[in-house]
Amino acid sequence: MKRVLIAEDSSVIQNLAKKILEFQNFEITAVKNGEQVMQLLDKEDFDILLLDINMPIMDGMECVKAIRELKDKAKAKLPVVAITGNAKNYSDTDFKEAGFNDALMKPLNFDKLVEVVKGLTE
């Protein structure tokens, strides 16, 4: 079973994404900020990370950069998808340059979410 890590400070979005992906037979772990992501990645392996851009403590942009710089090469290559409600502030180029594999806009389109997650974990 593929493991998905969701970092999202909105519990509504977190729970919806979790239900959708569990229905598709993904195993979900959810955290509230980038710092928790880094702590978990230190101990566990995941197949993909869904990363909200706007989070307290460590936001998505900082977090993806930290992941790409990890010494563990496999973990540094983890597929990371941005989840963002403020598309205006960042372009697709910004996301790619930061190290994201893809970006999803809020409100989340759940068909697109499933398609992207499946595409990056096959």
Automatic annotation (TrEMBL):
One of its GO terms (molecular function) is protein histidine kinase activity. It comes from the Bacteria. Keywords: Kinase, Phosphoprotein, Transferase, Two-component regulatory system. Its EC number is 2.7.13.3. The keyword Protein transport does not apply. The modification 4-aspartylphosphate is found at residue 52. The keyword Phosphoprotein applies. Residues 3-121 form the Response regulatory domain. PANTHER family: HYBRID SIGNAL TRANSDUCTION HISTIDINE KINASE J (PTHR45339). This is CAI-1 autoinducer sensor kinase/phosphatase CqsS. The lineage of its organism: Bacteria, Pseudomonadati, Bacteroidota, Cytophagia, Cytophagales. The gene is cqsS.
